[in-house]
Design brief:
Number of strands: 9
Helix content: 10-25%
Radius of gyration: 13 Å
Oligomer: single chain
Strand content: 15-25%
Number of helices: 4
Shape: globular
Largest sheet: 3 strands, antiparallel
Length: 126
């Protein structure tokens, strides 16, 4: 994933959406065009319903990350191993339970449950 860079949102306002798993921000059309660079297993570009289930327009804040591995802010937000791009600071929804099971298990990933919200974080201790 080191050479992959997420698209930068080409519009701001109501058309922005955030991925519920990795918090990447793009417009609806950008998710339809290229999916989520961090979550290709969701196939957002091929399924309209899946795109609506896995993304949300309800989020708070925005951070642009150019070098996630070296950014203290990216590591603090637990997005240090994601691709460079624009991310939200927080989402107000969680990934539906049936989609949580579709997230593949990879070494270095950790599933964390925080107050009724299931979140997949990279385990930075490895």
């Amino acid at each position: 994933m080191s050479n992959v860079v997420a698209q930068i949102p080409n519009g701001f306002g109501h058309e922005l959406r955030a991925c519920l798993r990795c918090r990447l921000i793009k417009t609806y059309d950008q998710f339809r065009e290229s999916g989520c660079e961090n979550c290709p297993f969701f196939n957002l570009q091929t399924d309209h319903e899946r795109l609506l289930e896995c993304t949300t327009p309800n989020f708070t804040g925005l951070i642009a990350v150019m070098d996630p591995a070296r950014s203290w802010a990216a590591r603090w937000l637990r997005i240090g191993k994601f691709v460079p791009g624009c991310y939200t600071l927080a989402v107000s929804e969680s990934l539906p339970d049936e989609l949580v099971n579709e997230v593949p298990s990879f070494p270095g990933f950790k599933l964390v449950i925080e107050t009724d919200q299931i979140t997949l974080f990279f385990d930075l201790s490895e």
